[in-house]
Amino acid sequence: MIYLNGKFMPIEEAFIPVLDRGFIFGDGVYEVIPVYSRKPFRLAEHLIRLQHSLDGIRLKNPCSNDEWRNILEQIIANNDGEDQYLYLHITRGVAKRDHAFPANVSPTVFIMSNPLPQPPEELLKTGASAITANDNRWIRCDVKAISLLPNVLLRQLAVDRHALETILIRNQFLTEGAASNIFIVKDKVLLAPPKSNLMLPGITYDVVLELAAANQIPHEIREISETETRMADEILLTSSTKEIMPITLLDNHPVGDGKPGELFRQLHALYQEYKATHMRGQVV
Q1: Which strand (E) or helix (H) includes residue 43?
Q2: Name one GO cellular component term (predicted).
Q3: 3-state secondary structure of 126
């Protein structure tokens, strides 16, 4: 069951006009929200990020936070699975093709649920491979826009080389992954690129830094050079669906000793504990 413009229906019955600006221009934003034990994870933070994206494209939020919460709870209840991920998609609506914003047009709102895949145990044990590429996307990567063609092309580079992710470098500095945030570890210090218009402010990125601060794990938020990235002792990938994943091979070269590192194991355990607390309803 999905939600489309005020109605719940089977996905097979959902249709959008071809003049929807999301289809014509990629004029819209989206959000992905993991659900554990039928509870949306960090929903308040996801809705803040959604508002930031809407503000970034000058589109009025069609719902209040309470309305979003109610709709999402109904989507969760009407789909199978204790663990799900919600995909929320908002476009500027249907109008005659013209680059300028149309007047008096209602936005298109679409929400669906999919089963939430668990990170593969084998990759958690052995680590995953990644490649690097020049970050050639636009300069408003902090807006979670539906026009994802540059990310798609960069992510496909990794698929072509049987890697999990493409790690992006802009002007000789690390930004993020094609569909993830990236941390590195050097000399037992967790390093994170600072939030800017050149990276998406990840919800899992925030959780990792909160866990590091709460558990006295040395960490810094600063620009990370390409050289530092290649010389890292550990590389960690984070996202709402992959959680925390170790990268142990970068451009066919081992990261550190080529095995998941100590800091990954510590943060992964802390993240699972945090999730369990969330599922018991002790955190929102």
Answers
A1: helix 43-56
A2: cytosol
A3: helix
- Indicate if 259 belongs to the active site: no
Question: What CATH code is carried by the domain that includes residue 256?
Answer: 3.20.10.10
> Residue 60 — φ and ψ, nearest 5°?
-65, 135
Query: Within 13 Å, how many C-alpha atoms sit on residue 89's CB side?
Result: 19
pLDDT of residue 280: 77
**Using the 8-state DSSP alphabet, how is residue 145 labeled?**
B
Distance between CA atoms of residues 9 and 4, nearest Å: 8
Distances (CA, A) of 264 to 88, 141, 190, 248: 30, 26, 10, 11
134 three-state secondary structure: strand
Please list the helix, strand and coil fractions of the chain in percent, rounded to the nearest 5, in that order: 30, 30, 40
**pLDDT the model gives residue 279:** 77
Helix (H) or strand (E) holding 243: strand 243-250
pLDDT at residue number 22: 98
Q: Are residues 144 and 89 in the same domain?
A: no
| 39, 96, 144, 195: the active-site residue | 144
The ranges of the chain with pLDDT < 70 are 282-284
Query: Which pLDDT does position 283 carry in this prediction?
Result: 60
- The pLDDT, as a whole number, for residue 109 is 98
Residues 250 and 134 in one domain: yes
Identify the CA nearest to 68 among candidates 94, 91, 92, 86.
86
